[in-house]
Design a protein that fits this description.
The structure holds two protein chains of two kinds.
Chain A: H1 3-25, H2 33-60, H3 69-72, H4 84-95, H5 99-107, H6 112-139, H7 146-154, H8 156-185, H9 189-212, H10 217-240, H11 242-245, H12 252-268, H13 275-300, H14 324-331, H15 339-345, H16 359-382, H17 386-393, H18 396-399, H19 403-412, H20 419-428, H21 441-455, H22 462-497, H23 509-531, H24 538-566, H25 574-596, H26 604-616, H27 627-667
Chain B: H1 2-23, H2 29-39, H3 48-61
Classes of the chains: A mainly alpha, B mainly alpha.
Amino acid sequence: MSIKNKLVWMAIAVLGAVALGIVALKRGEPVNAMWLVIAALCIYSIAYRFYGLWIANTVLGVNAARQTPAYRHNDGLDYVPTNPYVLYGHHFAAIAGAGPLVGPVLAAQMGYLPGTLWIIVGVVLAGAVQDMIVLFLSTRRDGRSLGDMIRSEMGDVAGTVAGIGILLICIIILAVLALVVVNALKASPWGTFTVACTIPIALIMGIYGRLVRPGRVGEMSVIGVVLLIAALLYGRTVAETPSLAHYFTFPGPALALLIIGYGFTASVLPVWLLLAPRDYLSTFLKVGTVALLAIGVLIAHPQLQMPAITKFIDGSGPVWAGSVFPFLFITIACGSVSGFHALVSSGTTPKMIESETQIAAIGYGGMLTESFVAIMAVIGASVINPGVYFAMNSGAGLIGTTAAHAADVITSWGFTVTPDMLNQVAHDVGEMSILSRTGGAPTLAVGMATIFSSFLGGRALMAVWYHFAILFEALFILTTVDAGTRVCRFMIQDLVGHALPTFKDTRAWGNNVIGSAVACALWGYLLYAGVTDPYGGIWTMWPLFGATNQMLAAIALTLCTVVLYKMKRERWAWVTVVPTLWLLLCTLTAGLQKAFSPNPKVGFLSHAEKFSQALDAQQVLAPAKSLAEMRRIIFNDYLDAAMAILAVAIVVTVAAYGVLRIHQARRKPQNTAVEVGGALVGHG
Amino acid sequence: MRSLAMDEVARFWRRAVQTARLMIGVPDYDTYVAHRRAHHPGEPVMSYAEFFRERQRARYGCERGRISRCC
């Protein structure tokens, strides 16, 4: 490394350290969001240059001379050698979703600092490492999927168990994400109208791109975006016209049923008609809005209103239950490490990589960008008044349903807020109320509206920006729900197909309907339970989602560790062993606490116990309002506990197989990894 | 000079369009055609409309556990 290079890296290190010091240590006065951005960017650069590239070159031993599947199987379709910048965009669009936007917002109840630190440390040591190594493993195995690789490297039993785990995680993810949308749209005619409009808009785009001008994605998207903006602006008129608003004002349970019905319809209809055009619209809107948010943060460089650390680090917070360890580490989810990325990294990306030397930039670098999105979400949640934050993110069971009562309760927690402030924010964003809009999306929307309106349009446009942000989040969450329902349907057909082979035929119409209905029923039940949950749903269900998502990451990292041992690279196995052990510790503790904690606020079983005893005494415990509601709460507690225990059992099984395979690999003198194509080096 | 700069812009634009299309699962059609001509001469080549349909079907087909997105 030249002296000039050394000086540049030293300057980056010093700048990063100063920025992090300001973020972490400044107390009493507000910190500017730019310090968060600078600290994150400096650390990402150093981590990529000195850790990511080191893992790729030394630990994995990427080989520029080795043919990638893109060349070996080049068909111009799935397998295509692709320019690394183009592929980076593809990979980022595939891994970016609602997770990194919502998780950090929820984590902000403990202050901006704990979440920020875990986003940065977690991505550098765990998330980006996982994404890159899974991408590397899949590239050396013809682009095979995570499940396939677990099967071939760790055996059929581990593969099947991991497959059940993936299905469970998908179902929980769909339910929780749909819940985020319901909470954002309930009693919001403006939001509901614009989101509902995406259905006819998608149909128009779909017909245009299929029948009128086949495959003209650019034209389809322009039509879609123009109609979408029109719907967004007209939404205000709908909300302000009582006779129209009436048709688009729904309570939570009704919205949940609509979304379940919609998910089923979208899964059964031909993809070109509804699912694909919505996907196009949501992908472009997602990437565009993330870029706009980054520019907005740079231009507005707002002050953070949220304290660095709040008193809720003791686990008594109103947004979600549980203390810093282990629950903060599972709440952040996708922003620092996400098991779902292992599925994407072993999906389409490895089939298009030109050279193994690009794996670090795409795998490790792609995840760093995702983590930066999470940092922006932290900023979005922290630029609004903390009292407003807690009013939006606490369930009605805690803060009541009137602004006056909510302001009293939140002020008593130490976050001064007046009813007027709460009403003013609701008025600014064009809503009747902002109380108990749990799920993170509405909070982030207020944060984004605050940032955007500070330099574009001022208060007059704040309501438009708010609903734009809601639309953006709802659109891509619902697209995930559509596509996820299809994925679940195929997985269910595959699993049941082992026992009943005719069910495997994914083209048969009957199978299609039955599979879709089962998939929708599974996540739909959880969604409905969440919507009618008196605690606001997110309080109960987000930890379950976070835990299972991180468990999938633990499974993927276990696979990475096993393969490193099989490749005889155990000298460096700590690179994956350390994050694997940490994730196992966090997720198993969280899973077991969610099931068995004696604190009824945290443990499902003790909560069920408490309500059962009251039920026996014919008492109705708040927040339930009748004995029937009591029974439903108890049933859901048992269901949630069963899911937590099942997830723990799955992870323990896969980890045990991991230990066994490592042991076997250590006894063999030679490399036993099941790679494809290595022999071609020197022959081609 | 000017044409060089224009070439740069054109190249950048082409890359941007390729990226946007690949984000929704549609790889470069010209690359596909060139591949078919070079490696499968005389065999049929899909028209752009057919190519687009085939890619759309593949993206949402989820064959063999393919998952193309995250939460």
